[in-house]
Amino acid sequence: MSFPKNFLWGGATAANQCEGAWDVDGKGDSISDHNRAGSRTANTHRAFDLVIDTDKYYYPSHTGIDFYHHYKEDIALFAEMGFKVYRLSIAWTRIFPNGDEETPNEAGLQFYDDVFDELAKYGIEPLVTISHFELPFHLGKNYDGFLDKRSIGFYEKYATTLFERYKDKVKYWLTFNEINFGTMDHGKRINGLFNREYSETEQFQALHNIFLASARAVVAGHKINPEFKIGCMLAYITMYPKTCRPEDVLKTQQANAKFNYFCGDVQVKGKYPYFMKRYFEKNDIQLEVTQEDRELLQEGVVDYYTFSYYMSTCIAEDLDKREDKSGGNLFGGVSNEYLETSDWGWQIDAVGLRYTLNQIYSRYEVPLMVVENGLGAFDEVQEDGSINDDYRIDYFKRHIIEMEKAIDDGVDLIGYTPWGCIDLISAGTGEMSKRYGFIYVDRDDEGNGTLARSKKKSFYWYKQVIESNGKNLSDL
Fold it and tell me: Quick one: signal sequence residues (predicted)?
């Protein structure tokens, strides 16, 4: 079997990494706007400032790649590649600057009207992430984010505002980006937990409230337009046992369940899985969960499942003691000697994508989309302006081949939106030098550059892939 005729080929970005214009037209500050730049090469992580000091520090999201003022040019380039779908996020603080206002900001709503109209001009379907690490800073500072149940209502109002405004322009929606970040300690901040130290009970209570917010949005969206397709989005880290020792296999099963399956089970099946209930009991985590909550989770299950896939990792029983750790955007793990690594130390595993698609589909049997996948690398501009990113072409070629094999296995895969289809700032460090795009943007790690767009070799290669519906993967 090959890719279905209506397969959704495209690309993905996030508002906080590309839009810029952080305080333009009434936009408020999000948590992302408080992240300073860091550097992988200097081994410095992004600092989070409660008070923004632009005189002293550089905050990459404040300018991004200025998609806010370049969206027509960028969408024209997406159309030239042949995109069928473009995954983007809406900046919550463009619509509700503080998150708790009574009325939305019309200038923000109009901006996305203009973006959707531009996409429609080229026949490109928008795939909208409602919340992609865009929590209003005000909600974190004054409500402890989603730890406060009032934030459920704030999110529902925000989502409903979008559904009503764009009910005839957007069909595909995602409620929260990489929601399973909330199971990890360093995922607390994106859920608004940054004022103090928070207990594990508070961490999971905030995540529970996010589940409820997502479910409310699904219910509201389907009432506004029954044709809406509303999905979940998880960061999927494929895990293999380091060895066939039963202890390594068991450790892998446990890590996989908590990180990869827990949130999907709640959003697709509408209930907490047994292993998390037991985890809460063992760790004295007592959540406020009402019967009404349980009924809402059942009613608000998603229509389809989407995920990010960049790499795989290995798990060992003695993981904490080992020195052969691997890199990754969420999860270290142990290195796999059978895989090569990217410039950022991420293990490249195309076959793992086929394995993962089968794993997810066998568990949920709902349509799937790979909404993030790609290779972050250093790109070199030649004297003639060309960028010969054959390494990126090779990465995508191998992953697309494995997606086609997964379809042949029987997986209902409906779309593919590679991450950072245009260069944007890194979520992890704020760098520009970690480039993913088919389109190069003249911007450096300090925010210097003309912002001029240019086509990489992979631009032309992906164009032929889409034109042939995945049949022509040959080198240029």
Answer: none
**Cβ atoms of 146 and 216 closer than 8 Å:** no
Tokens 């190069």 label which residue? 440
Q: Which two tokens stand for residue 41?
A: 């090469």
- Which residue out of 134, 156, 317, 372 is catalytically annotated? 372
> Quick one: how far is CA 34 from the chain centroid?
19
Q: Could you report the per-residue pLDDT of 100-118, keeping only the tens digit for each?
A: 999 999 999 999 999 999 9
Give CA–CA dist 463/472, Å, rounded. Answer: 10
Q: Respond yes or no: is residue 178 known to be catalytic.
A: yes
Q: CA Rg, the chain, in Å?
A: 21
Which residue intervals of 166-245 are DSSP H helices? Answer: 200-224
Cα 453 from Cα 448, distance rounded (Å): 14
List phi, psi (to 5°) of 310: -120, -30
* C-alpha to C-alpha distance for 359 and 446, rounded to whole angstroms: 41
Judge whether 247 counts as a catalytic residue: no
Distance, CA of 319 to CA of 340 (rounded, Å):
20
The tokens describing 199, both together, are 């207990």
Q: What kind and span of H or E run contains 226?
A: none
**Number of residues that this document lists for the chain:** 476
Evaluate whether 96 touches 154 at the Cβ level (below 8 Å): yes
Q: Which domains does the chain have, with CATH numbers?
A: 8-467 (3.20.20.80)
Catalytic residue among 134, 178, 317, 402: 178
Q: What is the pLDDT of residues 26-54, one digit of tens each?
A: 999 999 999 998 776 665 667 999 999 99
Instruction: Measure the CA–CA gap between 402 and 455, rounded to whole angstroms.
Output: 26
Mind listing the pLDDT tens digit for each residue in 199-245?
Answer: 999 999 999 999 999 999 999 999 999 999 999 999 999 999 999 99
**What is the arithmetic mean of pLDDT over 339-359?**
94
Q: Token digits for 184?
A: 């990890």
Tell me the three state secondary structure of residue 141. Answer: helix
CA 109 to chain centre: 22
94 touches 105 (CB < 8 A): yes
Question: Which amino acid does the sequence have at 247?
Answer: E
